[in-house]
Amino acid sequence: MTRTAALTLSEEIKQRFDELSPSQKDVGRYIIDHLEEAAFHTAEQLARRANTSSSTVVRFAQALGFEGFPELQHAAREEYRRRRESEELAGLAAPPLFPIDQTEFEAALQADHRNLEATARRVDRGAVARCVDMISRADRIVLCGTDQMAFFASYLRHLLMLLDLRADVVASPSQEGLARLARVDRRSLLIGFSAGRPHALVVRALKLARNRGAGTIAICDSTLSEAARVADEALFYSSDSPAYVRSHVALLSLVQALAYGVYALDESAYADRIKAFKLK
Q1: Radius of gyration of the CA atoms of the chain, in A
Q2: What span, in angstroms and rounded, lies between the C-alpha atoms of 12 and 38?
């Protein structure tokens, strides 16, 4: 199959989409929405992102008329470069991201946007590096968060379990939760989540862990939080919101970035663990 030189990679994928196999369509869909990854990731990395095999990625490239993946990647980089240049030119005369006369919907989006920026500006690289190291070295990780924070504790547990790191969640002072805290020792790591005033369970869990020689990390939205005061390390996120609940967008980003930091310590080893975990 010959290529149409005048088309960008994305345009060519859309034009020939119906001719592709189901697995090749998965690769095409992913590239269209994640052009930067196609431009700079290896075939193996792109295959993992698209939940397929590297051989499928190569066959996909050939189905579009490329000799192999390197030629497809070159086309992706060219399209990505041109797209960035056009976006930069458009940005010079672009209107503000949010209008002055905002609706409630737009005000909530703007608050989330500001929270992400504020969180990024307050990140302490040293603290993040220490937290990532503590997570990667712990024999056992206990994640403590109540109410809404229990969701984020469970989500971090999911991300760590994909890396084959043992993690438990304590979301209430139930008999099971207290039993998990009772097993904390110096080889453990306790991570406490809080929004506003920390729940008493989270503070007690952090204090217990420190008394037993375990590492402790507080993830909270206040530099004056009692959870931050009693933990070895603290990571802060901004949660301002015009709505009736706190904004958790920055917290979600922080959790994902923290897990990715652990993954990045040894991508090849963790990639094998993720594959093995999915096959269980």
Answers
A1: 23
A2: 14
